[in-house]
Design goal:
7-stranded parallel beta sheet; Rossmann fold
Length: 266
């Protein structure tokens, strides 16, 4: 696969998004980075400019701006960037979750989760695909879903449902866009060691030794982009866990997964 001309990464101020930007900058792919934490985003942009400043015109290769995807204004700013800069690689990585019984959270919080995980991703995918088709260059849109996208998952219900949407939407759109030269890919990582868990647990979480690193996840995403694989579940422990889940009665799987959420909180 040819290298991308320009990449857009959402959720770039931490975790997988941040490591994805470091990876792309390391192979000299220009990046548009957006995230909610403007301070961390600006620090990352400065880090990448300094690290790769020996490369010609490196300062123009890193574009960053803050965007809260829970808001119409934040989503609109990303759509404007898509049409202004016409990236041929879009990584829809931004996502949030909530641990615990669905009724233990305000409904408003759960609707905000849908705004980020579903609405924003859908909007950026559709607008990104339209921009790529108009530019007649084709491209790749990688939507980060989750290995829980096909699971019954008590105490993580809204998040799991949002990722089921992402996978279903992306898998179907893959076939619609393929004749137009746009590849819609779906990545389904398992548990990753990022700030996601801190926010999902309201700052109270346990570290899991089974978690993969954000760098490993970013490297897996890049492999998928290069191969243009439609849907990938990683790593091997996650694939094994999903295989076992298919062999158990749903009630047992639901109990095991609910217990796993309890184990993530002190």
């Amino acid at each position: 696969m040819r290298e991308s001309r320009l990449a857009l990464v959402t959720g770039a101020s931490s975790g997988i998004g941040m490591e994805m930007c470091r990876l792309l900058a390391g192979i000299n792919i220009p990046i548009i980075m957006t995230g909610r934490n403007i301070g961390r985003l600006n620090s990352l942009a400065e880090e990448l400019r300094q690290k790769y400043q020996e490369k010609q015109d490196s300062s123009s290769q890193i574009i960053s701006f803050g965007a809260d995807l829970q808001t119409e204004e934040g989503r609109s700013s990303v759509v404007q960037a898509i049409w202004k800069y016409a990236p041929d690689l879009i990584v829809n990585n931004a996502g949030i979750g909530l641990y615990g019984n669905a009724l233990s959270h305000e409904t408003k919080e759960q609707l905000e989760l849908i705004e980020v995980n579903v609405r924003a991703l859908t909007e950026f995918t559709l607008e990104g695909a339209k921009a790529m088709v108009k530019a007649k260059r084709g491209g790749v849109i990688l939507n980060v879903s989750s290995a829980c996208d096909h699971l019954v998952f008590p105490d993580f219900a809204v998040y799991a449902a949002s990722k089921a949407f992402v996978t279903s939407f992306s898998n179907s759109l893959y076939y619609e866009m393929l004749p137009l030269g746009v590849h819609i890919l779906t990545a389904c990582p398992g548990m990753v060691s990022t700030n996601f868990r801190k926010r999902a647990s309201d700052g109270k979480f346990r570290t899991s030794f089974s978690s993969m690193s954000a760098r490993f996840a970013a490297e897996e995403l890049w492999k998928q982009i290069q191969r243009k694989e439609k849907r990938v579940v990683f790593d091997w422990k996650t694939r094994l866990g999903l295989l076992l889940a298919k062999c158990l009665p749903e009630k047992w799987t639901a109990s095991i997964l609910s217990h796993s959420i309890d184990q993530r909180r002190p």
